[in-house]
Amino acid sequence: MPMKTPDEYLGSLRRMKPRVFVQGQKVENYVDHPLLRPAINTLALTYAMAQDPQYRELMTATSNLTGEVINRFNHLYLGPDDLVKKLNMVRTCAQKALCILRCMGGEALNGMALGTYAIDQKHGTDYHQRFLKFARFFQDNDLICAQALTDVKGDRSLRPYQQADPDLFLRVVERRKDGIVVRGAKDHISAAVGSHYIFAMPSRALTEKDRDYAVAFVVPVDVKGLTHIVNTTLKSAEHQGDHPVSSKYSTVESLLIFDDVFVPWEHVFMCGEWDAMEPMLFSFATTHRHSRCACSAGVTDLLTGGASLIARYNGIEKASHVREKLTELSTISETYYSCGLAASIFATKTASGYYAPNMLYANVGKTWTAKLFHDSTRMVQEIAGGLIDTVPSVSDCENPELSSAIDKYLKGRADVPTDERLKVFRMLQDMTTFGTVCYWSTISATGAGSLQGAKIMVARETDFAAKERMVKELGDMPA
Ligand SMILES: Cc1cc2nc3c(=O)[nH]c(=O)nc-3n(C[C@H](O)[C@H](O)[C@H](O)COP(=O)(O)OP(=O)(O)OC[C@H]3O[C@@H](n4cnc5c(N)ncnc54)[C@H](O)[C@@H]3O)c2cc1C
Questions:
Q1: Quick one: 329 and 447 in the same domain?
Q2: Does ligand 1 have an atom closer than 6 angstroms to the CB of 104?
Q3: What is the mean pLDDT of the chain?
Q4: Ligand 1 pocket, 188 CB below 6 A?
Q5: Regions of the chain short of the pLDDT cut 70
Q6: Which CATH number covers residue 443?
């Protein structure tokens, strides 16, 4: 069966030799690096859950390409039901590890499935068959890929071909008989470390003059010429007990430098077709925003649970303002999830036969996730009080000169051990003041594209003229 155990996944990473830098140091054994390992643990969880009878149904699907049972993250969407199941899978994973890091690969796979078909329809190319061949291999080997969309972009007011330095968007610098050579950089790429492959595609609409920038392909993470400059969410491997969330499961993003990387034709899925790339780009972005509805719901579930627990430990669980805030937090989670559900149920069947989530509802969901995460952490902080910031460190609590005083004076409700109360404070600190929250605040605001990008899509999908007509009709006014 084409599914790896967590150990087989770790073994497959150990056989790869990507060029990785962390905090200025070149890293040889990246799998066991203390700042990278929590992110690799997050990805390994997706393999463990697929093997666990409790989650098997949620985490697996039957491939339409091979007929085999595969990890659902690598499944192509064959109908609304697949999208609902992906939504539930992502929410459940986020409830266990916050950002699960594996969504982008599946979204890239689905974006490529639709996108290559659309390019072939317009240009008579054979990208779709090439892509399907790769997708079979990918599913059969239970692989993970990162999705490299975001270019470094230089002057944002200029198109790729107008930039002072032509390499500020990833581009083709050479077309050869056996493949292409690409140069440029992609930024903030989640889980590039921890993946087996990197899918690259353009980050914006292009014009004819940008033809060289219309390029999509897949490369192994250790392809010659590729460098990973990695940002880790966990900044220090010391005092892990003070960061109980981010030292267990974490995230990593890479600035990826493509220094004249060769890509064989069999792994090239777009090369120059600037006028036919929209379906690929929009499909990936919409599918990613669809997942965002689920992971944000899962993370807010954790915030709600943590706030409820600390309210109980502090004896304020019945206070009306606390009940109100907890209810609001729950409303926020379910709002995100409802948008994701609507985007699943009203999914569009594309010409390729594969489904894309409804663009309007997925983008509405993304806008709420961008706006409400910061409100959510504020409410958790209001409920928890100042210890969420100033909780004594594990080292303080373990110091015999201090431990009994801390135990006595930082007790909340008499029947709750102080160390349990402080552990919840540390988790909430990780999730609302620093550590994991730094990642989540930014990813909510800007990940899956900027808030403005999502709003543009909402405006594009809204028929304002039809709404004007409704008002005229209600007011018995001429059309
Ligand atoms: C933690 C994290 C993980 C991420 N993971 C991935 C990933 O796995 N793969 C991936 O491809 N990307 C990833 N991203 C990138 C993310 O999608 C981008 O951050 C996002 O698209 C915004 O791009 P930017 O960061 O370059 O900001 P900018 O594009 O510079 O945006 C900053 C602001 O400038 C505005 N702006 C930009 N251009 C214009 C313009 N021409 N006119 C007017 N306003 C403009 C934007 O609307 C926004 O308000 C990740 C980001 C983060 C923070």
A1: yes
A2: yes
A3: 96
A4: yes
A5: 1
A6: 1.20.140.10
